[in-house]
Design brief:
Aminopeptidase, single chain, 6-stranded mixed beta sheet, globular
């Protein structure tokens, strides 16, 4: 009789234990239910999912190897010196407009991007653009950007405009006094493009902290003159325009000039403004929008920069060789 009751008693004890365990689980779940913003007695809906087998130990996958070419240059070489390139105009300020409707702001940005790529491929320098897209950038903020980045060189790139028939390339550096009427007019046109800022909302202006000193460029006139000379010596040979069949029109070498350009005034390093050709000249306009020609201009500016650095006794260090892409890690 005793032996027959033992299975029944065991079943009763087991049911009691299971019931107690379920109650404990319900109590433990109550705080979580309150914290989720619902009453613990409220019905819940559970969506069944595929069963996931338990794994006693989980080994994380090996970290992907970093491709050095995807890491910013400043991170790889934190001590890089900086060159600032200024694509003239931008946004509402279109600059000179050609007979065929081409705009100076578009050409200057294209040449600047090519020059940036050349420098980074061949020199151990960091290159900063005052704008890398079609946006408004004040003349003061362009100068401040160079100073904030401790630039060693500042190159402002433009395409010239004139109401008269004019052709050729010219390079300017800062003047404390304008030298002639034509130069004063050009400086006036370049400087007063910033009046467009009055039509730009405060939100659209650059968030660059200003580090400007009145007439900061005055301490770098001699170095800027040498930079202008080095760049100008490389430009005219590129600017040969094809005219009628069998005829070649040589482009004038307009030489080196000084002007009181506002964009140069506050820059605390050697700085020049380069007018690479005349957008107002229909033949030069066609050249300026040609990608191959833009590349040649960038190469001339680059070579002029290299020659300047050599003349100052500090040839540019070569860019570090890119690291080869790591071989893929074989699957275990």
């Amino acid at each position: 009789m005793m032996n027959k009751r033992r299975p029944l008693l065991a079943l009763v004890v087991l049911a009691t234990l299971v019931g107690a365990g379920a109650g404990a689980v319900a109590v433990a779940a109550a705080p979580a239910a309150f914290s989720a913003g619902r009453h613990p007695d409220a019905p819940t809906t559970t969506t069944a999912g595929p069963a996931i087998p338990a794994s006693p130990t989980t080994t994380p996958p090996p970290a992907a190897a970093t491709n050095a070419s995807s890491v910013p240059r400043a991170a790889l070489l934190p001590d890089l010196k900086t060159i600032v390139i200024d694509p003239g105009h931008g946004g509402l300020d279109v600059g000179a407009k050609g007979k065929f409707g081409n705009l100076e702001k578009t050409v200057t940005l294209a040449i600047s991007l090519k020059l940036k790529a050349l420098i980074e491929q061949n020199m151990a320098y960091r290159v900063v653009l005052t704008r890398d897209k079609d946006i408004d950038a004040s003349l003061e903020n362009r100068s401040a950007l160079a100073n904030n980045n401790d630039a060693v060189v500042f190159i402002s790139i433009h395409a010239n405009g004139s109401f008269r028939t004019a052709t050729g390339a010219e390079t300017f550096y800062m003047s404390l006094t304008d030298l002639d009427e034509e130069t004063r007019k050009l400086a006036y046109l370049e400087n007063n493009s910033s009046q467009l800022e009055k039509r730009i909302s405060e939100e659209a202006k650059d968030d660059v902290k200003m580090i400007l000193w009145d007439m900061a460029q005055a301490g770098y006139i001699k170095q800027s003159a040498r930079l202008a000379e080095a760049i100008q010596s490389e430009l005219p040979a590129l600017l040969t325009i094809e005219g009628r069949p069998g005829r070649s029109l040589a482009v004038e070498n307009r030489g080196i000039k000084q002007a009181r350009f506002k964009v140069l005034t506050g820059v605390a390093c050697p700085a020049v403004l380069v007018e690479v050709a005349f957008m107002s000249n229909p033949e030069e306009e066609q050249k300026l929008i040609n990608g191959e020609f833009q590349t040649k201009v960038a190469q001339a500016l680059y070579q002029g920069l290299v020659n300047y650095m050599k003349s100052m006794g500090s040839p540019p260090p070569p860019a570090p060789a890119p690291s080869p892409d790591p071989s893929p890690t074989p699957a275990p």
